[in-house]
Amino acid sequence: MEEPAGLQLPAAAASGSQRELTTAVEAARRLEFELLIDGLPILDRRRTAFHCNGQCKQARLWISSIPDGETEGAPPRHFVECVASYLGTASPCVRQLVGLPIYDQNGGARGFVNQYGDELASLQLVGDGWRRHHDKAKDSICDEQLGLGIAASTEVWGIFSPLIPAGQRRAPLDAPGWEAKRLRHGLVPDLAMELPPDLGGDATAPPRKQLGEVKTIHHCPTHDVASNNNPGIFGAAVKRRAEKIAREYKDKARRLDTEFGLTPDGADGPCLSRLLTFGAIAAFVFGAAGEVSRDFDRWVASVAAVSAARMSRLIGARTTDQARGCIAWRLRRKVGWVAINAAASLKIDRCEFVGPGGAQAAKRRAAASRDSRQARNHSWQNAARVDRDERRARQRFRPWGC
Predict the structure, then answer these.
(1) How far, in Å, CA of 296 to CA of 267, rounded?
(2) Which of 119, 125, 126, 121 is nearest to 98 (CA)?
(3) Residues 88, 117: Cα–Cα separation, whole Å
(4) Cα 287 from Cα 238, distance rounded (Å)
(5) Helix extents (H) in 265-357
(6) Which of 2, 24, 53, 137 is least crowded, fewest Cβ atoms below 10 Å from its Cβ?
């Protein structure tokens, strides 16, 4: 026979601490709330949002942290977008734009605005909105780790390029231009971090280089499937996307070995072998309702554990455990507010492509992006030319005896 729960006992039989009583009350209230949420239609946005972020402490950051108004927090327009995404309510920035077409750079309608502004975030439009959203989250993770004295870098070039042998197959990779440079380096991980293996899974092992990948996902039919919102299911969208990253990296490494290298199909080549030496790829997936994947929590715990002893005196902590908690909370706030603002900016900035004048705005943004891309290509080509000329000059005027 099961023992009755604490709240089912009469007052005379009550025992335990205030903490235990509060925990029991909150658990009962949560269960009641979950029953109300799961009574909504399966794809109701409020139900979708709850099953996205209901068990993610990072998603609740805007509730439990007090912004300082300088390095943390969000402008009013961004803050209300964050609240709407978290609660699954209509987007404030598109209130006057619902039903209007969204234009691309060719003047064609790519879609129409719904009350949540989903298409503004999920459609591929001009202006590098996806890249800015992604890079802000990625750079914030790297910057916070560097600020704590732990080595980290972004856009890790040159890991796999030396493993692709010279020859006719490699010729497309050695052609001039930005596209060839990108292909030449093969895989370019978003992050490289010096942390204990498996994001601190083996805390006794010395730190080593690990790779990380940042992804951002939005509300769309690909990610918002009905099974995500079944009772007891939480964070399914970010979990599913995170689980694909390791396979994607291995497939790209195999392609480098077989298409540009000398490895036969089905065999493990040098690029794949090199990839496996880094261990599991840390998958940082930022969801549409403020949720993040599990690896972000593991990264916070690992960075806090590595830096706690060194930073405890600097931050005025009395114990290492206290320092670890302070650092973990700081990491969540810093990265969280950046991600909140970046996600809101994606929708707000893309409102210019909607309705009258949207087609002209898209064309102007496309022209600006094209000019910027050409400028980057020219800069890279000039830098490569200068480097080549300097090498030749050193070889030509090398002093006797050197």
Answers:
(1) 33
(2) 119
(3) 11
(4) 6
(5) 270-276, 294-311, 320-350
(6) 2
Can you tell me the distance from the alpha carbon of 173 to that of 184, in angstroms, rounded to the nearest whole number? Answer: 5
Cα distances (angstroms) measured from residue 172 to each of 178, 260, 298: 12, 9, 39
Q: How do residues 348-381 score in pLDDT, each as one tens digit? A: 999 999 988 877 877 887 776 665 656 556 665 6
> Could you give the CA distance from residue 24 to residue 400 in angstroms, rounded to a whole number?
84
Terminal Cα-to-Cα distance of the chain (whole angstroms): 90
Which tokens is 176 given? 């001039």
**Cβ partners under 8 Å of residue 82, min gap 6:** 62, 74, 290, 340, 343, 344
* Cα-Cα-Cα-Cα dihedral sign, residues 338, 344, 346, 350: negative
Each residue's pLDDT tens digit, 205-264: 889 999 999 999 999 999 999 999 999 999 999 999 999 999 999 998 998 888 887 888
Q: What CA–CA distances, in Å, run from 61 to 27, 73, 292, 310, 338?
A: 20, 10, 12, 26, 11
Domain parsing of the chain, residue ranges: 46-352+362-383
3-state DSSP assignment of residue 177: coil
Distance CA 401, CA 112 (A): 72
Q: Is the separation of the CB atoms in 300 and 328 below 8 Å? A: yes
Q: Find residue 65's DSSP bridge partners.
A: none
| Separation of alpha carbons 250 and 270, rounded Å | 12
Backbone phi, psi, residue 70, to 5°:
-120, -70
What's the pTM?
A: 0.85
- Residues 29 and 50: their CA atoms lie apart, in Å, by 15
- Dist CA 280 CA 138 (whole Å): 18
